[in-house]
Write a structure and sequence with these properties.
This protein is α/β, with parallel strands linked by helices. It has two domains: 11-66 and 379-422, Urease, subunit C, domain 1; 68-370, Metal-dependent hydrolases (TIM Barrel). 33% of the residues lie in helices and 22% in strands. Strands 1, 2, 3, 4, 5, 14, 15 and 16 form an eight-stranded mixed sheet that branches. A four-stranded parallel sheet has the order 6-7-8-9. α4 links the parallel β8 and β9. The longest helix is centred in the N-terminal third of the chain and has 17 residues, at 106-122.
Length: 425
């Protein structure tokens, strides 16, 4: 039976050869019924059509699925695509991008942000969690895109040696100054090595009080792991020379460091998490932390194999993100794009035993769960937002999830909150 109630007014029926609700099995000859910005029914065409009257858009040989959710991005850095070769040392890359950013103007960052948002939109993303290093861009850049944007205000403080309370207060004041609407703000204490324990603790308290999801880069590099676990290595030496207080190093892994700061919990997006000590995965699962893996960025830095099996076995919620184009390898005659389909394919190539449905879930239902948007985004169900994308599909019904991962080129249709932002032809 279709998922429906009494027929609401002004229903539109989006019919497709295949509908992927994601949280339920695929539907052949399916339809999504929409009223306003919400879904009112999902099911097979004959049953839903009997219960609802209204305009019909027949997408024909297509697969219809929820809009993709990018759980980690740096739109500010889009125009840094191809500027940096893969570094020999992780700290070398930090120095390169810090130097590059210092020479950019407000207009440079704004143009870069908008270009990245356009890329995401044409490549199927409808919601993005974006680290915002230049909060002055908000809210103007929000108005330049129909995307749902969660701008996570980046906070550091080690190099500047600014007071943690002041850093957090400025971020919260910026959040409070912005108008309510489709896009929202949150917080991002950048990483354990670039923030003080005091800032991590206070940001966590603020996040819990305000019911925010915050993002922290953690255990991204072997250098970071060595710094916290063993109080040695290139990152340790570099930060010590820059007068960081290193007394928090040498006793625990980066993940355990966040636990020591009381920063783990369902509010946290752990970005990258490439290096684990024994028990770290179980700790993340117990605290209900979601982990965001960025496959092409992972490849750029030549990290050790992503510990997917360990994290999945522990029950950690796994998602995918694009990171920024500053950390994607440049190949001849190939444009660099922010594109979750490319991330899914890169993940599939490295983890061939993972079923295509599980990979699609990492950019839909898993991502919605991580962002505390479960039942609202990332799946087709009654009362969810009508955020959807359409892809051409003429293959076998059983191959629909594989077809999503292998999709290349622009999406053939994209809708956000019931409005077509890319109209199907």
């Amino acid at each position: 039976m279709p998922d429906s109630q009494l027929s609401p007014p002004n229903v539109r029926l989006i019919r497709s050869r295949v509908v992927l609700p994601v949280s339920r099995p695929p539907i052949e000859n399916g339809v999504v019924a929409i009223s306003g910005e919400r879904i009112v029914a999902v099911g097979r065409w004959p049953g839903v059509r009997k219960q609802f009257s209204g305009d019909v858009i027949d997408l024909g040989e297509s697969v219809l699925l929820p809009g993709l959710i990018n759980t980690h991005c740096h739109l500010d850095y889009t125009h840094m695509a191809g500027l940096f070769p893969p570094p020999k040392k992780f700290t070398d890359w930090i120095k390169l991008i810090t130097t590059e950013k210092a020479g950019w103007t407000y207009s440079d960052f704004a143009e870069s942000w908008i270009a990245g948002a356009k890329m995401l939109l044409r490549n199927g993303t409808t919601t993005v969690a974006d680290i915002e290093a230049v909060p002055e861009l908000l809210p103007d850049v929000w108005d330049a895109t129909p995307l749902r944007v969660i701008s996570q205000l980046e906070m550091t403080g080690v190099k500047s040696r600014r007071n943690p309370e002041l850093i957090l207060r400025e971020a919260l004041e910026k959040m409070d100054s912005l108008p309510p609407g489709r896009s929202k703000t949150s917080l991002s204490p950048h990483a354990p090595y670039s923030t003080t324990p005091k800032l991590l603790r206070r940001a966590t308290v603020a996040a819990r009080r305000r019911k925010l999801v915050i993002a922290t880069h953690v255990a991204e590099s072997a250098a970071e792991f060595e710094m916290f676990q063993h109080a040695r290595g290139e990152m340790f030496d570099w930060l010590a020379r820059n007068q960081r207080d290193m007394r928090d190093c040498g006793a625990r892994s980066p993940v355990q460091h966040l636990a020591w700061c009381n920063a783990l919990g369902p509010h946290l997006l752990g970005i990258h998490v490439n290096y684990l000590a024994p028990g770290d995965a179980e700790l993340l699962a117990r605290k209900r932390v979601s982990v965001v893996h960025c496959p092409r960025s992972h490849d750029f830095f030549r990290h050790a194999e992503f510990p997917r099996r360990t994290l999945a076995k522990a029950g950690v919620n796994l998602c995918l993100g694009t990171d920024s184009l500053a950390t994607v390898r440049k190949y001849p005659k190939r444009d660099l794009e922010l594109n979750l389909f490319l991330e899914m394919r890169a993940f599939a190539a490295k983890h061939p035993g993972v079923h295509p449905r599980q990979i699609v879930q990492m950019v839909t239902v898993n991502a919605a769960r991580a962002l505390k948007l479960r039942r609202k985004l990332g799946e087709f169900r009654r009362s969810a937002f009508a955020d959807l994308i359409a892809l051409p599909f003429a293959g076998k019904f059983a191959d629909s999830y594989s077809a999503v991962i292998s999709h290349a080129g622009k999406v053939s249709g994209s809708m956000i909150a019931g409005n077509w932002v890319i109209a199907p032809k």
